[in-house]
Amino acid sequence: MAAMSPSLLFVFSLLLLLIKSYANSTETSFLECFLNTTRSDSRIAIAEIIYAPNTTSYNTIFLSSIQNIRFLLSGNTTKPSFVVLPVEAAHVQAAVVCGRRHGLRLRVRSGGHDYEGLSYVSAGGPFVILDISQLRSISFPDDGNMAWVGAGAIVGEVYYNVGLKNATAGFPAGICTTIGVGGHFSGGGIGSLQRKYGSSADNIVDALIVNADGEILDKKSMGEDLFWAIRGGGAASFGVVLYYKIKLVYVPPQVTVFTISRTLKQNATKLLEKWQYVAPELVNDLWIRTIVLAINEASGDRTIQVLFQGMFLGGRDDLLPLVHKSFPELDLKAEDCSEMRWVESTLYIAFSDIKNLTMLLDRRPQYNSSFKAKSDFVRNPISEEGWEEIWKFMTEAKDEPLTVIMEPWGGRISEITDTAIAFPHRKGNLYNIQYFMRWSETEEAVTEKHLNWMRTMYEFMAPYVSSNPRAAYVNYKDIDLGSSTEEGKTSYTEASAWGSKYFLNNYKRLAKVKAEVDPEGYFWNEQGIPPFSS
Question: Which residue, 184, 327, 364, 509, is most buried by CB atoms nearer than 10 A?
């Protein structure tokens, strides 16, 4: 190990003195280990890598990407002992090795979207946030048909760089452009290209991951089982992904997008009932999702508005006859359609300004509010009468800001077998549902009111959605499905409460992979995958 420069020695000593003034022995031991392990690199100021609560930049870094503030207002969660902001792989390795050696667990954060805040707070003991947002480089090796993407990148950065590289290249991933790649890709990754090309995880061809021993492994060295697990099973239970190698997909020079809005008086219920049959059976080039809004009218009455938002891999002249034949009830007109580049369509679908592509590079949280989400999968169409019952339930609660988003299955995402990768939601699903509610009030009573209503809504929907098990999408994390607060002690049976819903029949294999690669369960969180035990 190289000798420490005088300036770094001073920083080392000062930081250690500050930490010792408040920290317990575990935290002090972790810090000493981390500093000793990383101090040979004199080019990087240690104060720019590790942040402690009594340092000036701690709150700025801690809050920099948090999307859901309700966990900051809760007395049931704790903040991290440190935030580590690695700028190279060696810093990640040091955090893993020192954390495991001295009993401080890690929470990995890339974009901060974690729906239940598990990447930035904990209901367990002391922990460290490993914020990998600086590991976000994107490069295009070989002929440009592949890309290496840092797990700290956001989806918007992927879209921007891919679109800049090649006007006829794209990548299937999520709608919200500030989602972090690290969690999104490893949990599946669904969006407007899923019917044509499958999920994000279906298009990952290699990865670099730091395991529980602090080793950097690629696809070959990590082995088939671990590579299978981190494509759809979430990476947080298995290690820290540094980079993904992704396979880019072909998109035409121009795509066509549209948004049609209908109210109940404009036959929205009949349209939605028909959409369930049509959307999963359309040509794979066409994706039409629906967004249901409960809105208050000027009269004070509450009604339902349904948006039909579509993206077609082709021109307007090809789209119109296709929709007129398959879904004439939608009454799609030429003036409803806009042709644009695929990269611009990613902003359109996210309801952003398509003329300002640099918005795709903006990592800042879009809101400073609280939210709650749940998810379902639908395998049998809901009848028109069923939708009317659902509208009645939604409109009776006039102050619950619920949005229901439904994305069509069918096409490539349904053709891939449910065991090809860990992402299991395949053939037989017509569409998935995300129930999403956002509020700005900070009172605990208001938050509990919203949460309780959302749980009631979820129970109300039970007869209409999948069952035995009732499936859920891991990227729409829902702590109500079950959780463990006994740190490192989660049993296979206990975790099946959420594992069987997120991963269906793949849950057992994921737990067996966990037993192989992290038998001590160092990578733990309240809704993680435990090592398999009969």
Answer: 184
Q: What is the pLDDT of residues 474-492, one digit of tens each?
A: 999 999 999 998 888 999 9
CATH code, 55: 3.30.43.10
Please calculate the CA angle 431-437-439 and round it to the nearest 5 degrees: 165
Inter-CA distances, 443 with 75, 114, 372, 447, Å: 13, 22, 15, 6
Sequential DSSP letters for 124-143:
SS-EEEEE-TT---EE--TT
For every residue of 448-503, DSSP letters joined together read: HHHHHHHHHHHHHTGGGS--SS----TTS--GGG----STT---HHHHHHHHHHHH
Q: What is the pLDDT of residue 3?
A: 45
Distance CA 102, CA 31 (A): 10
The CA-based dihedral angle spanning residues 65, 70, 76, 79, taken in that order and rounded to the nearest 10 degrees: 20
Strand locations in 221-369 (E): 240-247, 249-250, 255-263, 286-296, 302-312, 337-340
Looking at the predicted structure, is the pLDDT value of residue 73 above 80? yes
Domain end point (choices 223, 250, 277): 250
Q: How do beta strands 402-408 and 286-296 pair?
A: antiparallel
Tell me the β-bridge partners of 204.
246
Please state the domain count of the chain: 3
Report, as an integer, the average pLDDT of 423-441: 97
Q: Are 314 and 341 in contact (CB under 8 A)?
A: no
Domain holding 421, by residue range, is: 255-339+369-464
Q: Give every CB contact of residue 30 below 8 A, 6+ residues apart in sequence.
A: 81, 82, 98, 99, 102, 104, 128
Q: Provide Rg for the chain, Cα atoms.
A: 24
The predicted structure's pLDDT at residue 101: 96
Q: Evaluate whether residue 279 is within a structural domain.
A: yes
CA–CA dist 315, 312 (Å, integer): 8
Q: Are residues 124 and 199 in the same domain?
A: no
CATH number at residue 237: 3.30.465.10
Cβ–Cβ < 8 Å for 118, 527? yes
Q: Which residue has the higher pLDDT, 435 or 8?
A: 435
- Whether 346 is covered by a domain: the verdict is no
pLDDT one-digit tens code per residue, 282-341: 999 999 999 999 988 888 889 999 999 999 999 999 999 999 999 999 999 999 999 999
Residues 151 and 206 reside in one and the same domain: yes
- State pTM to two decimals: 0.94
